[in-house]
Design a protein that fits this description.
By secondary structure, the chain is an alpha/beta fold. It contains 16 helices and 11 strands. β1, α3 and β2 form a beta-alpha-beta unit. The N terminus is likely disordered. It comes from Tahibacter aquaticus.
Length: about 290
């Protein structure tokens, strides 16, 4: 037993310092179409080598869970969506490091739509209904499949808590299918599947009530005083296209809103402020956003 203890001590002493420390965590949220754990592993490896720090990957069940983990400090660096960033950007302990520099065509395509069953729901009936309508969204915390539509509805005078009964379909395509197959009266989803259905003449008995402006992608967010040096991580991310292009490509491939991005750039805050521009009163817009988040 004494020899075993001695062997364990010697083995521990032979490990690099960063391997003996608690690993830093880079995290994101799950989406059915992508293996995001595999997509983040090359970036985690590059960060670990550059920072001399063990880095592990975590994939949480939803954007809401990712936002909560960032706030509570169990995540050091996160690849977010717009919903998550809006939820955490008021936290003084968190800072955005970089965001995908997407081509104009990708940015223009990243929108949300609000759809309804034809001849059943209009914006007027949404405002006046006295019974909750079945409302298909994508996943809790989806930006293009829930948040932007909820902001629009609130600005239009619709009380989502009493006039809409939300259900989560899992993917944007599934939300559209729920509407087409009469499992929902209204649906929130990204514009791309809706455009594809129209091109293929498979839209069925569905009409568009509203289409959002382009949505900026969510940035990578770092926690101050965590297990990753945020300044070093920012410098690495902003040069990732030169230092580790394969790691960048792996992340881009797992986020449809990042399609075509070849680099990361500093975050521009006005793009996120514009998401509540539909409210005549800025304070009212912030209050609704806080409630939704």
């Amino acid at each position: 037993m004494r020899l075993l203890r001695l062997a364990m001590v010697l083995l521990f002493a032979s490990l690099p310092l960063h391997a003996a420390e608690r690993a830093a965590v880079i995290a994101t949220y799950a989406y059915a179409r992508y293996d995001r754990a595999a997509a983040l592993q090359p970036l985690a490896t590059v960060l670990g080598e550059a920072l001399g720090q063990a880095v592990q990957v975590r994939v949480l069940e939803s954007p809401r869970a990712l936002a909560a983990a960032l706030r509570e400090g169990s995540v050091d660096l996160a690849v977010t969506n717009t919903f998550v960033y809006l939820a955490v950007r008021g936290d003084a302990h968190l800072q955005p490091l970089a965001v995908f520099d997407v081509p104009a065509a990708t940015l223009d395509a990243y929108r949300g739509v609000l759809l309804a069953r034809r001849d059943r729901v209009t914006l007027t009936t949404l405002r006046l209904t006295d019974r909750p309508l079945r409302y298909a969204q994508v996943i809790p915390g989806s930006t293009s499949g829930g948040l932007v539509q909820d902001l629009f509805l609130a600005a239009s005078g619709v009380n989502g808590s009493t006039q809409l009964h939300a259900r989560y379909s899992g993917t944007h395509e599934a939300a559209l299918a729920d509407l087409q197959q009469d499992r929902a009266d209204v649906a929130a989803l990204a514009d791309a599947p809706w455009q594809a259905a129209q091109r293929a003449s498979t839209a069925g008995d569905v009409v568009e009530l509203w289409r959002s402006p382009p949505i900026p992608p969510g940035p990578m967010v770092c926690r101050d005083a965590g297990r990753i040096d945020c300044a070093q991580a920012r410098a690495l991310l902003l040069n990732l296209q030169h230092k580790a292009p394969d790691a960048l490509a792996a992340v881009v491939a797992a986020w449809s809103e990042a399609a075509g991005a070849t680099r990361l750039v500093p975050v521009r805050e006005p793009a996120y402020d514009a998401l509540t521009a539909g409210f005549a009163d800025a304070a009212a817009g912030r209050a609704v956003l806080e409630k939704l988040l």
